[in-house]
Design a protein that fits this description.
heterodimer, A: alpha/beta, Amidase signature (AS) enzymes, eleven-stranded mixed β-sheet, 16 helices, 11 strands, 39% helix, globular, B: mainly alpha, Histone, subunit A, two-stranded antiparallel sheet, 4 helices, 2 strands
Amino acid sequence: MTDITSSSAAVLAGLILSKKASSVEITTAFLDRLEKLNPKTNSYLHFNRENSLAQAKRADQQLAEGKTVSPLHGVPIAVKDNLTTTDAPTTAGSKILEGWVPQYDATVVRKLREASMPILGKTNLDEFAMGSSTEFSAYGPSKNPWDLSRIPGGSGGGSSSAIAGHLAPLAIGSDTGGSIRFPAAMTGSVGAKPTYGAVSRYGLIALASSLDQIGPVTNSVLDAAMLQDVIGGHDPHDSTSLPNSLGSMVQSVKEADVKGLRVGVVKQLSSDGFQPGVKACFDDTIEKLAAAGAEIVEVDCPSFEYAVAAYYLILPAEASSNLAKFDSVRFGLRVTPDGNPTIENVMAATREQGFGPEVKRRIILGTYALSSGYYDAYYGSAQKVRTLIQQDLAKAFTQADVLLTPTAPTTAFKIGEKVNDPLAMYLNDIATIPANLAGIPGISVPNGLASEDGLPSGVQILAPAMQDGQMYRVASIVEKLYMDQWGASLIARVPDLEAL
Amino acid sequence: MSEITPDLVRHLASLARILVTDQEVEQLAGELGIIVDSVATVTKAVSGDVTATSHPIPMANVYREDVILPSLSQLQALSSAPDSAEGRFKVNAILDED
């Protein structure tokens, strides 16, 4: 019998389909492990054994009746806690939503249920997904299974640590400026941000609506492609959901062939500012691709220099508006000050107690960026930078089929190292932000351990909008080049959590 | 140097309906000053005529058929409210009494 908790989702799906293991057995194995080890990693904010097992049992019953509803039928999954679930609390990592159980399921959650994939639990995140380390979660940071004193990336560090720690075979993340890809790079897992609109945002607690995108966090590129095929597609509940299908991602993975591939290396994201070991891993990926027959070209994206600045105007602006709904009226926390307070006093007291420091910082920054007199200079300019970045990318994609960059400037840093330096924290997403501003798909694939600290590094693959299949195709090529060298995935080398 | 003064922070926080202590105001003024100085570089990035992008993927608005679909009941909509009465959300006074 294969070791269940270290198997890929594709393998587990095969076991279930061939009736070599049941969904109940597999779900139980993950529940046993996460109940024991979650206190070490703080990956999950909520889980409920009975509820997960009831879902697994239903999946098994369907199979017994000869019904298979999806290629991932019966495979359990973890869901980031900023997606609404009617059967579990949804906190978005914030005290303001502590104990809230939503009245409707996010479309992605509904699709997982329809695919008969039991939900293992809800994973930790920086409060309202604002952060890149999970240190801004109101429920404490998640820990990186490679080294428990380090961050697992953020905001989706609950999902990335669950994958790397084998506390889930699959997870859902959301990516506004890198919250899927950065944690994937920190933990040696695979994380994909689809094209904007490829996966419905209905039921995702909005951070910045023009940037947010839901996507897979997994052990392998094939697993990510399988999951995107399940969760993607048009949704009338999301007005920005793409009307057209992007095709089968799994099919693209199967077509992986390096012949004739033009790989672009972004001049602005390939030299300065990267940790030497991360840069060395990146150079190695490029050398491997060249040796395999890909054509390597350097592309120039001068406007990328302004991407982080534009992002930290657009994001707070949109977030300050989106988070206005947490006003103590319809759901969530209400704090009533002494005396005879007006509703405004109640709102201000509630938001003071309910929001953490990073959320307050970004709301106030966004309020500033949108205020009369500053709007054109800041928010207006930032939106123009967005156009320039799209133009740079459009030109780059005439020279190359995909663009490669290191996913992150460094490997996982120590918990506490950057928490008091907002600007240093913001720069973690320097390589991932352009994809969100332009709406294009991006994926992080593990490409080795940095020589100076032995921690995982990731390579990011960017493709033109709607060409998610191309992204998965090249990700699969890169993954295979490393599998040929390593003989197993990087995640197989994660230290034994039980011994830590 | 940025113009983020403690008074401006107090004003912005009140617009955003967040109560702030004097200590928080001081700290936020310092932090936001550094952040604003850094993001202000966008003003240098753009010269000449560049259109603004508010949405990454060009899309036209569409309307669905005007048919009634299932939605939350009044009871469900109120079920998470901190306070409710007579089928409505209940809140403190909207206007100051004096």
